[in-house]
Amino acid sequence: MTGKDITRKAESKRFISGVVEGFYGRPWSADQRKLLFSWMQKSGLNTYMYAPKDDYKHRAYWRELYSVEEAENLTNLISASKEKDVVFVYAVSPGLDISFSNVKDVQALKRKLEQVATFGCEAFAMLFDDIDPELSEADRSAFQSFGLAQVSVSNEVFEHLHQPKLFLFCPTEYCASRAVPNVATSEYLNTIGSKLLPGIDIMWTGPKVVSKKLTVTALEEIATSLKRPAVIWDNIHANDYDPRRIFLGPYDGRSPEVIPYINGVMTNPNTEFEANFMAIHTLGQWCQSNPNGVKKDLIKGDQMSPVASDIKLETESDYICDEDIPSRIDIRYQPKAALKAAMPDWLAEIHCRREPPRHPFPRVIPTYLPGALMSCPPGVSSYLPPGPPVVLNPSPPPSNLPGVPSCPPGNPTIPPGITPFTSNVPAELPSAAQPCMNPSELEAPSTPPNNYLPPSPPAGLPMPDIIKTCLTPSYTTQTITSAVGLTPLATICTSAQAPLPIPTFIQPPSLPVSSLLELPQSDSISDTALSSESGAEPMEVATTGPPDSSESSRNVPVLNNSVSHTPSLEKQNSSDSLMQIESDMNDKNEDSIFNDRVDNVFSEEDALLLVDLFYMPFEHGAQGLFFLQRLHWLRNNVQSIIRGNGSDTNQFEVTEWHHLADEFSAKVGEAVSLLSKLTSGPNKSFMCDMYSYLWDLISILKICRAYVQWLAKGLATQPLAQQTFSCVTWFSKGYKEAFMSGDQEPWVFRGGLQAELQRLLPIDSAHDLFYIKPPDYIITKTYNIRPYKALDEDAVYQICLKTCDDGMDGTDVFPNNPHIMGDKLIGKFVNLSSDYCFVIEDEVGVCGYVVAAVDAHDLNNKSKMAWVPSVQEKYPLTEKKDHSPIDDVIQSFHSDLNTVSDDIHSKYPSVLRLDILPSRVEDPALPRRLLACVLCALKCSGSKGVHCELNVGDKFMVDFYAKLGFFALTPLEGHPNDIVFLGRPI
């Protein structure tokens, strides 16, 4: 062994610890990376790898050299890392289209890394994850196997760079589940291990792409195949596979006992930069918990160390999964203690003043390269299954690689900021999928509702033996703009499947960009002067102020029915785009009612609650579990308060139910306050990164709270209708165990806590009401959705007047009779069916409503007896030669009531009307959330469908309801031609 080899061996003993920027999505900015180096230095981490998959010069266009401006920025970044004693690793991913036998390609690779070396970079990485494992015809004649081809090029580059002190290699089989046929006998892994030069470290994600835990046994096995200990590429905090999940919990699932069996750990965390402080801080604590560890067989397989065995009983109640106890209760590192230790530093970051970055508009480049397997047009074979980091792919993976995600959440060919055409959205786009257990293991009701359709999985999604990802069709349609060409009722009723759901929440991934080109930082986040040509992505401002002074303007709210209606924001939209903040921050906060805010400072309790709501991929936090367990209990025990259920009412059970319901509502209020504190805090960068996730969860929690408040009325007559049918819930037999076991990749359980709560609601299959694209602006106003009260009558009448003229204000039309349109359109609902009415209220008062009745025929019969006589007396019929609009309305009170035909009533027996004031309802998702509340109530009362009645000339309102998932119904015969009926199954 030469002196150089001995020196290299001594240097290699330094334990590698740090961060990989290796996710799919918008890369971090230069300022964020410099802040990252500071975090890493304080946490004791020593290595950063630059590997953003969507930086086109890292992956898609790896042959291109950096421009002068990019070179300067990269040089500054490398210098900044050295100042913080962080090793900067430049990674390149040439595997998409490299020809290993082509001398020009190899020279291009050397030239690219040589250029980066001139910037001061001394560490490099070659990544071959997420690529086609087949050699081209030219390469097959030069190399015996794919592994030999990768080894040949990597060794040549390594030696060309004079064997840098740190050189990392990511294999194509980067985890045990990808090893063919397994780790021990994989020809590829054994080739890599035996042929790759000993100075090259090899990266490994563990048993899975996202591994719940790492054991000594598994690490020894891979070290044997690789002929060296692995460097762990850890995806435990990665979230780029699910647009609704983000992970704020502490580093977990890895005992410090495994440190001697690996050469390092680098975490590939959340795409949202600000969300990663806890992951980085706790990883640093973990790495330092066993600095001088020696190999001990203390955690072999499922065996725990003697120390862990001794104290297991003392801590067993603190943990949910016994399998994780060895790693969780190691006395040197405990995740909960690490979380608490990191909290003061995290709060300091949350309270500091920091603006979000401005990113340049992405370079427009082709998304399909001849001969390359990259982001292709829909329907064209694309990426292989996700590797480090995780990604969703546009097409099904090869059949010999089970258990991997395949369908992308959106159109990958559309860059952020570009509005796609609705007609170009691929038909195979899935809504966020719902997990489903093996049917033989389910504990479900014996019979489903009459309109229940069997679930079907999205195209290409894997179906593991234990967990199967599936989807119940939701009943939404494309927008209709007029009453012409209405779908016949018979066609709707006999259709084999309901219209496809619209994936409104999920956003398309970005095109590759240059993450080394930055916009100049503005002095103010609210600066909207930059145009798209300058590279900015300005956000609209949700201004807080009085209603529009011009009440004659069109007042129909525009709902985003798909990603084609607004500039698209990516999954990490918060940090990528310039979110505008209102200058006037609200002084109110919301719980079940609006109370004065006592303390609007983000406290440690708030931070702990935030972590609990967005915990880890295989575990929900304590507060998240509270919401699940309490909602499940309230739903399943509501029979104790149902009126006239045939049994004696137990007053203790009634009191207990209401007490627990109030506690649930209060907890929702605490979660709602997080959003207010977040938007009013000084760290706008943190706020932007977290906003869309918290907005989504709180919206679902508000629906759950309104549902519980309605259940408190004791009107639920169909306990069976309260069960869920699309798949299973957190409480189904075997589901929780499968979720927490780590045997399945976490993308099998999509949607996070939001999806778990949705499945506890009776309309869980109505995905268009839950999976909604976050707003393109920050909304600081607070809203509450609750059941209607008698005191709301004047407010809802006023809203009805301001929206009665096809969405426009009717005040000038009925100046002397402000209540006449309310009496005509909603009076019978609020007087005869008030239990099925809900309102939206802001800090001023009610600003939207939905009124409904379970049975339209029953409502008409009651109206004839109790409502019509009263309005006829209130508005007596007078004879006039010239009829004004008021006279026409009065005439309608004295005419026969419109009655829905039996053919429509048989499928859509319930009736409703929904109106909002757009000048006050700034959140575009609120109409859908409001509709979800009333549909829950109707479903629990036995309804299977709902319809609404509009005048044939109300084209704007027809379009409004169509965007809420209603479609036109044509009665079979004998119905007025001036009435349009729109229906929606429940």
UniProtKB/TrEMBL annotation:
One of its GO terms (biological process) is glycoprotein metabolic process. Residues 524-575 are annotated as: Disordered. One of its GO terms (molecular function) is beta-N-acetylglucosaminidase activity. It comes from the Eukaryota. InterPro entries: GH, Glycosyl_Hydrolase_84, O-GlcNAcase_cat. Keywords: Glycosidase, Hydrolase. It catalyses: 3-O-(N-acetyl-beta-D-glucosaminyl)-L-threonyl-[protein] + H2O = L-threonyl-[protein] + N-acetyl-D-glucosamine; 3-O-(N-acetyl-beta-D-glucosaminyl)-L-seryl-[protein] + H2O = N-acetyl-D-glucosamine + L-seryl-[protein]. The keyword Hydrolase applies. This is protein O-GlcNAcase. Its EC number is 3.2.1.169. The gene is LOC106065918. Residues 15-291 form the GH84 domain. Transmembrane segments: none annotated. It holds the Pfam family NAGidase. Residues 524-534, 546-575 have a biased composition (Polar residues). It is an enzyme of class 3 (hydrolase). SUPFAM superfamilies: (Trans)glycosidases. It comes from Biomphalaria glabrata (Bloodfluke planorb).
